[in-house]
Specification:
The chain is an all-alpha fold. The chain has five helices and no strands. It has a single domain, classed as Up-down Bundle (Substrate Binding Domain Of Dnak, Chain:A, Domain 2), CATH 1.20.1270.180.
Length: 134
């Protein structure tokens, strides 16, 4: 029980600090402050990395919760299905963003379009995991 409370507290603290840091790490900030294609791309890399870290924290939290559930009940189906859904999400995100990249390629905005898509789809997954375990 104490582990769950600690995990929830840690997750909430991380989310608070990551939300504060998003003020400077957002698509909108990059578009407003970067005047070159390479500058925009570099800025989006920073946002993408921040979103990846936050998403991984939410995934780790969900796995932890489901592992605890499996230990308590002896039922691993939810954990196994969550892991499968996460693999499917990664495949979906890659394919969804890749077609957008290919539609613009070889234009100069192709890389930025891919990164924007990646960020938005990842944020959507984060919101989904936040709803499941507020």
């Amino acid at each position: 029980m104490m582990n769950k409370i600690f995990t929830y507290s840690l997750t909430l603290a991380f989310c608070f600090f990551s939300t504060v840091s998003y003020a400077k790490k957002s698509i909108e900030h990059c578009e407003a402050t970067q005047n070159t294609t390479s500058g925009l791309s570099s800025c989006l890399d920073v946002v993408k990395e921040a979103v990846d870290r936050e998403l991984q924290t939410w995934i780790n939290n969900q796995v932890f919760i489901l592992e605890e559930f499996a230990l308590a009940t002896g039922r691993r189906a939810a954990l196994d299905m969550f892991k499968r859904s996460q693999r499917n999400f990664i495949t979906f995100r890659e394919n969804d963003c890749r077609w957008q990249y290919l539609a613009i390629s070889p234009g100069t905005g192709a890389a930025s379009a891919y990164k924007k898509c990646y960020i938005l789809v990842s944020k959507s997954r984060i919101k989904e995991l936040e709803v499941i375990n507020p």
